[in-house]
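Quick one: structure for this chain?
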Amino acid sequence: FATLLRFLLKYQEMNCSQKEEMGGHNNNDNNSFSIAIRTEAIKFLIASYSSMELRCKMSTPSSSLSKSNTAATVVLEGPLADLVGVRLWDAVPRRKRLLEMKRDGLLRKRFGLFDAKRKGAVKNTGFLPSVVTVLLDCIAILGNGRSKAAEDDDDAMEKDVNNEVGTSQSSDGHRIMLRGYISKALELLLDLLSYPQTRTHVAPYLSSRHLVVQLASSKLYRDSSQKKQGSFVLFRQQVDMLLDSERMEVGIIPSNSTATERDGNNNTPTYNDMAVQRVHQRAHTLQKILHRHHQRETSEVVFAGVGRVSDSKWLRGQIDKWDEGTLYDVCYRLRLVDDDGGDDEIDGGNWTVASCAKRLGCTPRALLTSILLYHQSSRNSDAAVLAAAPLYPTELLLWDSHSVPPGRYQSTTNQSLSLPKLNTKFLSAGDYLLRNFRLFRLESAYEIRGDVVDVVKRMRPALKSDGYAKGNSAMVDYYGTNDQLDDEDGDRTEFHGWARMGIELGSKKRDKPGVRLIRVDPPRLGERVPSRVIAEVVLDLHHCATSLAKEWGEIGEFDNLFLVCVDATAMSGAPAPLMEGGGGRYEGDEERRVPDEEDCSFPERYGIRAVRGCMVLEVRDEAGVVLSDPALAYDASGRPEPKGKLRYLRVALDPAQFAADAMALGTDVYDTFNLAVRRHGRENNFRAVLETLRGLMTGGADSVYRSVPSWLMPVLLGYGGDPSAASYGSSVMRAFASKAMGVTSPDAALDYGDTFLDVGHLEDSFPGCELTVDGQGTDKAKTTEGSSDRRKYRVKVVDEQGQEKTKVEATSYPFPPSYHGNDIRFTPVQVNAIRSGLSPGLTTIIGPPGTGKTDVAVQIIANLYHSFPTQRTVIVTHSNAALNDIFDKVMARGDVDERYMLRLGSGERNLTTTSTTSHDFTKTGRVAHILSRRGDLLEKVQTLSEALGVSGKSERGADGAPSYTCETAEYFYFHHVKKLMDAFVAAAAVTDDGRSQKNAIGIFPFKKYFPKLDDAISLDEAMGKIQEIKSIFEELAEYRPVELLRSQRQRTDYLLTKQARVVAMTCTHAAIARSYLVGLGFHYDNVLVEEAGQMLDVETFVPLLLQRGESDDDTSGAHSRLKRVVLIGDHNQLPPVVKNRAFSTYSRYDQSMFARLVRLGVPSIELNKQGRARPDIARLYSWRYDDLGDLDHVTTMEKFKRANTGLARTFQLINVEDFEGRGESTPTAYFYQNVGEAEYAVALFQYMVLLGYPPKNISILTTYNGQKDLILDILSQRCGEGTGPLAGVEPGAVSTVDQYQGQQNDYIILSLVRTKAVGHLRDVRRLIVAVSRARLGLYVFCRKDLFCNCHELRRTMDQFSDGPSNLQLVKGENFPTERMVGQDVPPVDRHEVEDVTQLGDLVHSMQREYVADQE
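Got it. Here's what it folds into:
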């Protein structure tokens, strides 16, 4: 690759004679390469730029890059940078170049060094300018214009291309080749503009060439006759993307400035403000030139406001009044064009307005006008762009093959798509959010398309002509016209099927229309779309089964529905097209067609005219009772029984889409909807996520620029100079810690709490350091420790320059005996991770399988809870299971008070903890717990009052309830209890013998409250009793606001914002609830994200923005309370789930923020000791990590030392040949199954259960959903009810590898399914997950020669290949065996299974013996 790239560079620098000697064409330099070769070179460059990092010079090396990319980056960084480096300024017109270098001294210096280095050699602009020139030539040819080459050399360009393909200019092959080059060239330019490093020189060059203006002015772009052609649509979309990308502002914060200098009291403007300033500056410059040279004919522009001058529509009207000479002179003075007689050589020839206009097929005046308008017009802000973007996809987007491509996109096809790409670095926060917004919307559209297709197919639309009138609509159109439908009878669409997720709209018996517009609110100030559009949707449940009617009846507030118009008269009835390539037929020579969910012609086939989304606001029954009222969930009487079968849904339509429909189609489109489609809960939350992303772009204190600390933003976006700037030891974080409140300095002592089990553990955790405990050496500390209880520790690390060993100073304090605490002996690396998590800044922890990353997370949470009692910590995970696991472990410690714990989201009701009280940790459950706890405490207050004689039992309520409230209890404390406490303390101070005397009972004032108190009590014990009483009133003081607040919503909001100190939620719920939390005033100081490697980039970003930023007076300059961010994950395991392969491979949408930061070189801590699997099983995946070792217990614990009963090996790969002449099969497209492997896996499970293995300790995994379904079917046949001795026996799990990530079991049976191609297991990350789920045994069924010969899997498969290919069993053993691992098995006890049939016979005989023994 490096050699090829250097050849490209060298070839461009050769003169014509040298190229001719090498076989090149001795003609114009632009034609030195054929179109085919140029296209391949561009593909190579696209792959090169996208697969490695072009790093700026950083203060620290990027040592965390993956092993596979490091070497390539070192080799290719120079050549790749040279292609788009300072040499491009040779291609910029001289006057423009001099102006830019006058403004930028650093650029002038770099160009001067470059110019001096070539020592007078002939100027050559390099490869990229020739790409642009040939791109314009190809566009001119396809647009039936004349190319620049043709003007110079009598159609030489067309002839060269024709000779390359051997066809005439009008042939299909010729045009396909040109289209391929155009799409790839535009893709390369888009990529170069999206990287901050490459954009530096590429953007000025493209701007000087006015490339976007030329593309938009070309006949190919303007030709309306080709609008339905796929290549034309792609070209227009790519040009529009290039326009947006070229005008995107870059928000780079200087790396050498401190946080205070950037965002402190200086109030540095954001990059959006800077963009506005540039527009104003351009407008003033234009007005000055016009006033000085053309005042008379341009006076209206000279004296107009900046807004007018920046308005392209108004400015075009003024330019039309100028003569062509004035227009050209203005463009010349603005340095937009050079004099036609100039001597500047651009890309091998004089670039003139006349020649360019002739090639594009337009007049020079039109081209000059477009150039000037493009230069002067203002760009819509990112917030405005997102505000105008509809949140719900329509039928145009759903079936646009370029925007929402088929899910089985093949990266090997090198097909260009009009999709944004996610990079490791971004131009600005706006660029980051825009790209994620569009990709999230498109991925949601792909999933929605599949759901709509499934419902429409199941509903079976058909045409029936019965004189049905379409009905009238009295709704006045949004723009003032009355859109009543015709009363004529017409054809009607009926549905002859049914679907669980779909229902026909309207009521036939009641003559109720399906959709009726109710309200359209006018636009807000400064906006162009309605502020709100409300409609009513009618559902008729008469024909639904009871269970189905119940599901539709559970639709509630904020659920999303899709309204579909299906017109049977427009149905073509044609079958789906055949699949392209080699997959056009099944095994039986049956035609293989494109799946309906991937077929872009599906709307024509099924008559889909329109699709619109809406959000449910309320649901009413026929009596008008609101069924969706959230308060009904807390009503003791429960929800009322709905009246009738009709449901009236008040829904909110998309205002932006409604405005577009009103302009283009009129509001009558909303009267044609006849089908409603609903979706499942989690996947239907896309609107909330999109609204959150859109809201982050708005200004104010809740914007992204204030919500994220200034010390974190440059690192997250990748444009900081130092990737370690956010680490706790950096100078930036030291400056932040010195000014922010509640932030400890990196050099200060940290409270590790119960992290260390003893002094020996403390010493082992800091190897090579000089440790002192309470001012003593470790030897003396260990001696002292032996005679005392366990201690907690505060530790300070003193790393002074010049000293041989780092000093570690530990201070101990008592360990409370009332709770369990930590019992894990953390490794030194884990302790380092805990230290980083307690320190301010960004912490990234890489947790290989079984290394205890969840335990580290729990310890960090507990230490933050005790060390910073005024701070709140937010826990975020990807799945509810992982969140519940963390939450359960935190509660099991016993040192975190339950009243400070809160769990948000849909998974909160499934949370079960080891707490003895088993409280409900939902918001409502926490309120109920507080009220219950309040009653218990008030009962104690009442008892104390009676013991002191302040009140009597007669003052209790009729039911014996206490007469006190939280408020009156506080009065009772201050007027009575506190006085007695103070008197006791004063009396105790004058005792002779101190606290060791047992005579305090005489002066203790609360003897009657403690009836079991002995006659003698020490002062220490008495003070403990007083503290117990005091804690009652302190806790009641916290509950007083809950007592004053009357509504359930107010109480839950108070609990969330004021009391809870540890709040847990999933990343999905964080996106949904973000606007609500910000509006509520929710604040937090620390964020811990578990499973960060499985989250989409933006799903990790949103949890950092759940609060408003601080004011400009914040002395820290951070504008945010956020102090610590801890990301825990593993980028070597599976990435986030993206269903459409085009988005994951082409757009890199499956890139997590965790993996991106690791790739950028952000310092990370990789845990290096695993305690899950046997050492030999761990070696199957440990090669993927740096120095991954084993904890001691995996070799010393009994279960790891004992062999697997009845199995000769702890792990084995079993070869499975064709079963009954058949290997893998696909009953439907991409639904892979393998009957032989499924039967084998189930038979092995039966064999193990019959030997005595607990079924719950065995999991069966596979790599495809089709195989999972097949295994479940076979299990139901072999182990279902009435099947024999194994009836009702189920494994611990039957799942796919992807779904099982984050879980483990003792024994794993794995089926790899494929027999013709490796499939998606070629992704080594999926292999790592697959082989790392087992603790004690792993048994893999596959086609051995296929997977063992796969290069990507070789490091793991070579270890499997060392063993036999047939399953090795051991006779005569029952679970648990006495045989140890490594113990030889006599040959007489060995049994080798030849195939699945033999194992099935063995299992059958074992079942007969089992039945006989039972009888």
